[in-house]
Amino acid sequence: MLVTEDPLSYGPVPSTTDLDAWRSVRERYLSELFNRPGEPPEDEYHPKGLDTERLLGADPVVVWLAGVLPEQLMLAQLVVLFEQLCLDETRLRVVQVEQPANVEVTWKISSISPDQLQRLSPKPQVPDADQLREIKRAWRAYTSSEPSDLATYVAEPGCLPFLHRAMRQLVYRYPHVQSGTSIWDERLLHYAQERGPRAMRVLGHTIGNNDTPDWIDDVYLFRRLVSLSAPAVTSPLLSATGDTERLRECKVELTPFGEAVLAGEANHVLENGIDDWIGGVHLTSESPITFRDGDTLVMPA
């Protein structure tokens, strides 16, 4: 059994055929994300990606996944790895688990019990040529440094509805044209106002009320929450007290500017700038910024 600990759906995911360089970028980002400054080396956590060496001898390779974005991206990465490593794609099997309509909490594969899997009885499928092309196209769109490639991908029909729906969620990671916040920043501000001040409650409601395929973990969200406070930004959206390195010991409250941003009366990016990654796209204040208006990307003139 191969398990990847890299969620793939946040942080830099550059387009490259150099697997060592790509792995270095991801491991450096995840190490900085998951480990606090001054952490003893023996306590550090270093998430690992796919073990490509073990892929070489595995036949078949059976991928189990639900509809969440990290798992759909895992499939896309794996298919592209097959191509880069010149592996026979007919060795690949995909077990796509479909979430029942009466289940409100978004499933990821690790949250599904053996009994649920037995009742659903999903069958392994061999991706056909059209599906493989679709998967590769999705990965190219995600790792591209141009937001227009994602816009093109989501605007066109696809033959893999789970993948296409998950990829559409990436549009909402871009800052809104009016408030300058991504969908996750907007939700964090909303629940800080509604459920704060304890950061743990803010994150609990943010994650618990997410019914989209854009599954995200608490470590990443906590880092985003803290990044909205001083001294990370010129005009803070949040006031943070307690230990901002420890979720359980941190409290947050909206500042007047944060309230204005949440109401759509001020723009976070125009005021504070931006330094964020969406796949292969690096959004910075030093280059023209792509915004989002509703579910459409607004390219810079």
Question: Explain this structure to me?
Answer:
This protein has helices at residues 19-34, 52-57, 69-84, 114-120, 129-143, 147-155, 161-168, 183-195, 199-208, 218-227, 256-262, 268-272, and strands spanning 11-12, 61-65, 92-96, 238-242, 250-254, 275-279, 281-284, 291-293, 296-298. The chain is α/β, with parallel strands linked by helices. It has two domains: 11-146, no CATH class; 183-273, Arc Repressor Mutant, subunit A (Orthogonal Bundle). It has a three-stranded mixed β-sheet with strand order 1-6-7. Strands 2-3 form a two-stranded parallel sheet. A two-stranded antiparallel ribbon has the order 4-5. Helix 5 runs antiparallel to helix 6 (147-155). It is globular, with a radius of gyration of 20 Å. The N and C termini lie far apart (48 Å).
Please give a handful of descriptors for the protein shown.
alpha/beta, Arc Repressor Mutant, subunit A, 2 domains, two-stranded parallel sheet, 12 helices
Task: Compile the SSE list and pairings.
Blueprint: E1 11-12, H1 19-34, H2 52-57, E2 61-65, H3 69-84, E3 92-96, H4 114-120, H5 129-143, H6 147-155, H7 161-168, H8 183-195, H9 199-208, H10 218-227, E4 238-242, E5 250-254, H11 256-262, H12 268-272, E6 275-279, E7 281-284, E8 291-293, E9 296-298
Parallel strand pairs: 1-6, 2-3
Antiparallel strand pairs: 4-5, 6-7, 8-9
Helix pairs in contact: 3-5, 5-6, 8-9, 9-10
